[in-house]
Amino acid sequence: MATGILGKISRVTVENNFNHARWARPYDNCKAADVDWDAYLFNGPKREFDPRLLRRWHLYKMCTNGLAGLWMVHHIDAVHMLLGSTYPASAVAHGGTYVWKEDREHCDTFHALLDYPEEYLVSWAMGLGNESGRVFTIYGTKGTLDVNDWTLLPAGGKNTKVRDQKIVVEGNDDHMGNWLECIRSRERPNADIQYGHQHAVATIMAAAAQTTGQRQKYDPEKRIMFTG
Predict the structure, then answer these.
(1) Which end of the chain is least crowded, N or C, by CB within 10 Å?
(2) For residue 30, is it within any domain?
(3) Given a cut of 70, is residue 171 above it in pLDDT?
(4) What does the CA dihedral 128, 211, 198, 82 come to, rounded to 10 degrees?
């Protein structure tokens, strides 16, 4: 990415697709007597014990903001690191419950578009009604990078110098190992705290755009999200 071999990057596409009820854990043996329910609720509103919120928490607004918080969070940080970005300027999103008509408060199909001040658009989508897996592609004027299997492609490039080739990724990809090394060395970890804040903001913007139906913007100086 730093060599600029892809040319001007204008678009990134990331998708996750699953087609099985990975969240449908049984909860009939989850008893109130075995749970510190007040501690679990923490500072949220008080409510009666509900074992679904323990075993199938993915489905409920009390526990998560939906697919953006559950899955987008695992990929938008990689987008930021690869393209050198921090925060999106704005986000819009659509979603709906089209496949899994169960007791859920979050959609099973979600699509967000995030606009970055570095002048590129990120499309992040997820569906729970298809098993085609993951897509992660970066599009430039001189070529394409398939991040999913680290392949450089000349497809779509103009005056390209890119040739089909695999990229060898070097370095320590063991997050826990890197963290332990930094405890000993007092160095900063590869994925330092600011990255966590940046991708949290991106996913919160996307989720809020879907639930409110309004475009969300972010001011990194004031650290505030607002509609507009």
Answers:
(1) C
(2) yes
(3) no
(4) 40
